[in-house]
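Before surveying the methods themselves, let us examine one representative protein, pairing a chain with its fold in token form.
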Amino acid sequence: MAVEVVLVHGIRTSATMWRSQVAHLEQRGNAVTAVDLPGHGSRMDEAFTLESAFATIDAAVRDAAERGPVLLVGHSMGGLLSIEYVGAEDPPPVDGFIAAACTAIPRGVGLATYRMLARGFDALPDRGMWLTDRVLNATLPDETRYDFGAGGYALAAQDVALRTLSVLDLLAALERIEVPMWFINGQYDQLRANERLFTRIASHAELIVVPRTTHLVTAMRPRVFNALLDLALATLENPDAGGSS
């Protein structure tokens, strides 16, 4: 039975950031659902709340689970939310989990600094989009450059989302996750801050660091990330062949 894949995007972006992964998964025969979280993409006019974000992830996972095993993949904010979701006391029907670019605890000085920088960025002319475009043009390949922002940028939801993430109890959730799990980070990802702590708590998880790559690992190195999806899918499709357990 083919594994179903659910993709959860990061802050400000949308389901379109996964276009390379969606095309790859469909080509290999895996059904895939890339969600838009509230306040993002096609749901830009909705308010972002943790409850609605978790409901979005849960609806996609449970729908996919009716057809087969589920691999949940979350990037950045989507990864943080997915850690909390997969590590619930009443585990959802997730058979494997990739947490990409999200090995950091969104609290304290780090979160306050990030929010301050984000507010300062938004205060720039055109809310800093000219600078965003320059950075993306310089770092992303042509094949994914326009996918990342094709669904629009959820600038209005950013500060609310960042603030609400502070209530997540990620370390407790990590302790409860028993399914095969992979942490995937870019070498230069700022959210590697608590990487060692996360891997110590989730000791069965595999850590994969992609060289010469930033926080935008899915878009900056799409073919590498797709190969890592294949690794996770092979593990779930052939559980007796070894790998994470």
